[in-house]
Amino acid sequence: MVADLKALPAARFEPAACPRLVIKIGSALLVDGDGEVRRDWLSGVVGDIATRHAAGQQIVVVSSGAIALGARRLGLAKGGRASLEDAQAAAATGQIALSQSWAELLGAEGLTAAQMLVTLDDLEERRRYLNAASTLDRLLTLGVVPVINENDSVATAEIRFGDNDRLAARIGQAAGAGGVILLSDVDGLYTANPMRDPNAQHIPEVTRIDARIRAMADSGSRSGMGSGGMVSKLEAARIATAAGAHLAIISGHVERPLTAFGSGARGTVFVAERSERARRAWLAGRLTVKGTLHVDAGAAKALADGRSLLPAGVVSVDGRFARGDVVNIIGPDGHVLARGLSEYDIEDAAKITGKRSDALTGILGYAPRAAMVHRDHMVLIG
Fold first, then answer.
1. Helical H runs in the chain?
2. How far apart are CA 125 and CA 91, in angstroms?
3. What integer pLDDT is reported at residue 252 of this predicted model?
4. Cβ neighbours of 202 (radius 10 Å)
5. Domain boundary among 281, 308, 335
6. Same-domain status, 369 and 270
7. In a domain, 199, yes or no
8. Residue 185 and residue 194 in contact, taking contact as beta carbons nearer than 8 Å
């Protein structure tokens, strides 16, 4: 019996339903054990991309592999990951080979490739994020296929994504994509690590990433080449779905993985939530914050009801933030409830913590603002 393709989970990622799609490819799929590009396999992926492009879908590629390729050429131990300096040198060397492969294979299909290298700050700092989004939009409207990687040659241990799963989700958000597909060495999420537990069950669809789903993740990378396991993929799914994009984890261990997925091959689809406004989606997807506001149970309930955070509900503050910086709001149980833009710098925030609104003028010496974090500049996380 022939499957109804419209009923398949992959239908959410087809050109008619998803005008813009981000495809992420991991190092273990793109680079072989000798540190060379798997060009025959990659040409199949490019063929899939060309087919979708011809059907009207705009494609962004997030491609790993620079460090693995560079490490081979430089003869570096541990795949170029023995030290930050080795990783930076390997990335600088390997990125040229990686970009050349993409440009040649896409060119053979009549497509133009563009390279974008980004750092964490490019997508965390609001103005730079908007610049990146504008560049992506222009490239896509010109019919170009942007090929994106983290700029590992300048990234530091403290200021970096560290894995391209989360980078792909953030790029999807910046590009306004309707879907993100992670090509992986596994075909989705399981109830346990299938390499260790033969009774692990495959999960075809996830509509909510809760504690039960998070408990299924395993941070290990099967190949040893990559930097992210299932934990990073779940975080990517959280970012993507909060921004209104579906995310799929599918196996890349076939010659035409996108075609296979569209024809019914197994994968896990994380279903998008209702899309937040662009500013709120950006806040939800941030990976760095400047400080934290710890709140009591009453304030936690007020936030859940859609209200602003008032100073009276704040128990303590910490970090180094100024007015307009992004802060996490932490509930009594220690979990992040929300993320937003602080209306005060930390010095004044500390002065008014726990204080009623009618006392603020006397404490600050000036007319206070309406809230510590206004609901219009806040997004709920939990």
1. 27-30, 39-54, 66-74, 84-108, 120-124, 126-141, 164-175, 211-214, 230-242, 257-262, 278-285, 297-304, 346-352, 360-364
2. 24
3. 96
4. 14
5. 281
6. no
7. yes
8. no
How does the average pLDDT of the chain come out, rounded?
89
pLDDT mean over 38-58: 97
Strand partners, 25: 63, 183
Tokens describing residue 182: 């992670």
Q: Which amino acid is at 304?
A: A
Fill in the DSSP letter of residue 275: P
Any residues with CB less than 8 A from the CB of 256 and at least 6 apart, and which?
A: 44, 45, 47, 48
Going from the C-alpha of 279 to that of each of 167, 285, 340, the distances in angstroms are 18, 10, 10
- 244 plus 295 within the same structural domain: no
Query: What's the pLDDT tens digit per position in 275-292?
Result: 656 567 767 777 789 999
DSSP character at residue 309: B
What is the per-residue pLDDT across 70-118, written as a single tens digit (0 to 9) for each?
Answer: 999 999 998 888 888 898 899 999 999 999 999 999 999 999 999 999 9
C-alpha dihedral (171, 285, 270, 338), degrees to nearest 10: -170
C-alpha angle 208-210-211 in degrees, rounded to nearest 5? 160
Q: Which one-letter DSSP state was computed for residue 221? A: -
- What is the reported pTM? 0.77
Do 150 and 210 fall into the same domain? yes
